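Friendly challenge for the regulars: who can give me the structure tokens for this chain first? No prize, just bragging rights.
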Amino acid sequence: MAKLTSEGPSDPSGEGVGPEAAGQAALILVATPIGHLGDLSPRALATLRTADAVLCEDTRVTGGLLARHGVSVTLIPLHEHNEDDQTPRVLDRLRSGQRIALVSDAGTPLVSDPGYRLVRAAIAAGLPVGAVPGPNAALLALTLSGLPPHPFLFSGFLPPRAGPRAAEIARLRAVERAGLSATNIFYEAPHRLAEALAALAEGLGADRPAAVARELTKHFEEVRRGTLGELAAHYATQAARGEIVVVVGPAPAERSSDEELEGRLQDALAAGMSVRDAAAAVAEATGLPRKQVYAKALDLTRG
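First reply, four minutes later:
Bragging rights claimed.
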């Protein structure tokens, strides 16, 4: 592992080596505070101050942040409804030599926020893309949850409607039965938290350890830990406020009888895995020989 220093891995000047620091035309992803305004890094502020334009979800939110720091720069809205239309215009700006910063309302761009299609288009066009790292609610909630920090699976927001949400949770449980063992991270709207926790408790097990983190880095920051059943019961009677992150612990180990092996394989195949991938995942989860599991998977598909 490379040694980390205040100067960076290979630049003794301390100014960095990526496009975000080289003064060249580039699309630069800039992480902004998720609550505490003191979390805007000096590099992020310098990048925003020197950009020719800043792409943002809501000009009022980003404008307010920049005004606090005395930054005046052109703001261009970029959100899920106009990203396709804005992308060619932004690429033209980059080709003309401009430095364009991309921010979300809070946290790291692209993480459950707009910008992915633009970044992919810039990469495909051979244009430089850089980033200034910083706050991220999902990772902060993970580290505060007390649950295993890795491996983890970030799924963003669950579907808002009950039917699709239950189907998504069922797909996750099927993959767990096939061998996935990871801490799961979700974002959730406060008005849907209680029903989301109830659906997770029903689909993953009420005794699964979990945590609900809200208002991270803000005055009323709270991390409530317990089982999914306990958390669902609490928020069924206590309204939640603010930005919410739900962290769910990995599935418990399960016994591997012949019936269980068949069930795991059926779940994996039902989740869309190929026979080979399903066998590999189940073999890894159970410790059984891969050839044995693969032969069982073939029997199931032939049957």
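Strands lie at 26-30, 53-56, 74-77, 99-102, 129-132, 152-157, 183-188, 209-214, 222-227, 244-248. The first strand starts at residue 26 and ends at 30. Your move, everyone else.
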